[in-house]
Structure formats: C-alpha cells, structure tokens
Amino acid sequence: MKIAIIGCGNMAYALVAPMKGMAKFYTYSPSGIRASVLADEVNGTQFEELAKIPAADIYMIGCKPQQFEELAKNIRGLIPNSATVISIMAGITVAKIQKKLNIEAVIRTMPNTPAIVGRGVVALHSSCAVSPTIVEKITKLFESGSQVFSFDDESMIDVITPFSGSGPAYLFELGRIFSEQMVQMGVSSEIAQKMIAQTFAGSAQMMVSSEKSFEELRTDVTSKNGVTYEALKVFQDSGLPSIAKSAIDAAYSRAKELSL
Ligand SMILES: NC(=O)c1ccc[n+]([C@@H]2O[C@H](COP(=O)([O-])OP(=O)(O)OC[C@H]3O[C@@H](n4cnc5c(N)ncnc54)[C@H](OP(=O)(O)O)[C@@H]3O)[C@@H](O)[C@H]2O)c1
C-alpha cells in the first residue's frame, strides 16, 4: 500500500510514525522540513512538489482546516480516482472534501496525539464510496497507535472532537497549572512535572483497566471531610462542572463553524 501524507505537522506525525513498516510513505509539506522529518521516521520519501508524488492508494490530508482551501486548489486533479482520501482535519465535512478534491472515497477521522505513544483515540466516519475492505485496512493502520471508534453518523465526529481530539490539551493544561503551584510551594520543577505526569498516567491507567465507573474511582479516594474532599468541594462550589460544559460547548461550536 502506498500512502501520501499531505501536511506533516504534529498530528500527522503522531499518527503516522507508529505505522512504520506497514506501507510505503510519501510525504509533502510546503516548507519541506516536517515532511522530511516524517519521511526519515517511517523510511518514506519526501517530495518538494505535489505534482511529483507518485500515484498512491491513500492520501492523508494533515493540514489545518483553515489551510485546506489552498491545499485543495493545489492537489485537485493530482489524486487518482481510485484513491481514498483520509482527513484528520477538525470540522471539515466529507461532502466538502469530496467537492473540493473531486474524489468520492473519503474517510473523515478525529485522532489525538497520544497515538505517538500507542495510546491514541481515533474516531472514524467513512463515506459510502469506500469499500469495507479499504475501511478495514485503514482501521488496521490507525490501530498501530490508537483505539479506533467508527461512527455511521458523521455529525458524531464534531461531537467527539472537543472530548478526544482536544482532550489531551486539557490534561496538559491541568498538569501545567498544578506543577506551577507545586513549584511555588517549594518543589523543583523537574520533580513537580514528573510527579504530576505519573499521577495522571497512573490514574488514567486505572480508568482504562478498572471496571468501576469514574465516579466510583473518585469516591474510593475521597474520605468524607478528608483532604481530597476539601479540594473536590472547591471544584464543585466554584462551578467546575459548568466551566467544563461551557468549554466543551465552545469547542463544539468552533468545530461546526469550521465546516462552513
Ligand atoms: N494537534 C492535535 O492535537 C490535533 C488533534 C486532532 C486533530 N487535529 C487536526 O490535525 C490537523 C493538523 O493539526 P496540527 O496540530 O498537526 O497542525 P500543524 O502542526 O500546524 O501541521 C500542519 C501541517 O500542514 C502543512 N500545510 C500547511 N498548509 C498546507 C498546504 N497548503 N498544503 C499542504 N500542507 C500544508 C504544514 O506545513 P509546514 O510543515 O510546511 O508548515 C504542516 O506540516 C488539523 O486539521 C487539526 O484539526 C489536530
């Protein structure tokens, strides 16, 4: 299988690096730098011009949604009709990709960057023009670094984007806030970062492997009137649930806006 990666930024790198050895890769990005880094990582070939990329079976579109118009203008007509296009762009609909690229077989995905450590999440929606065999092959590729969730209803991709697509950033931000506070309270920044990371990783592993609900896991570590209880009470009283809901609503609106 030959896969052309058009746009080789953070997300494309995290997704494609674990696929090393599973296909032949061609990479392209306007500046060339990140395409070259990705090509080196997967033993692929970097191309300086779109027109020079040999015909591939799959074209993965890895640019930002705002960069898609320009990319589409440059690549339209260069993708063989038999190829499948995979988009990792937030918001951009299958219909828009089909129209702009004049290609029917489109798979829209919403990945996340933990794919680079084999713990990613990919939401996937396929247009009817993609055969089940191709969907299966593409799912296998993504499974190199991620757990794949398929959705028949495309609108679910926008729904999950603020949770799994953006989710890692929320955790990184929480980690930054907590470790900054630890430093202010006298812990070295190196130790603070390591302790927060390990706390999150261990807790996340429990969320993955335990049969208990998230609420039960939280209750297990919260004694009434204890230390944790005091902190959680402040979260609740300061409106954390409604802050989280507003944040998700804002991200969801933005995802839908990008599709217009
Ligand atoms: N980052 C995440 O956590 C995340 C999660 C889920 C989904 N996504 C989606 O992934 C996509 C990429 O995000 P990112 O964070 O990886 O962005 P990024 O790091 O800025 O990468 C964008 C890539 O697209 C290339 N590019 C820009 N204009 C182009 C054009 N006209 N033709 C071809 N390539 C072009 C850039 O080239 P240069 O290298 O030359 O600048 C760069 O390699 C977005 O659509 C986003 O919605 C991201």
Features:
eight-stranded mixed beta sheet; 11 helices; alpha/beta; 2 domains; 260 residues; binds NADP nicotinamide-adenine-dinucleotide phosphate; ProC C-terminal domain-like fold; Rossmann fold; 8 strands
Task: Note the topology.
Blueprint: E1 2-6, H1 10-16, E2 24-28, H2 33-42, E3 45-46, E4 58-61, H3 68-75, E5 84-87, H4 94-101, E6 106-110, E7 120-126, H5 132-142, E8 146-150, H6 155-165, H7 167-184, H8 189-209, H9 214-220, H10 227-237, H11 240-258
Parallel strand pairs: 1-2, 1-4, 2-3, 4-5, 5-6, 7-8
Antiparallel strand pairs: 6-7
Residues 6-12, 29-31, 34, 62-65, 67, 70-71, 88-90, 110-113, 165 line the site of NADP nicotinamide-adenine-dinucleotide phosphate.
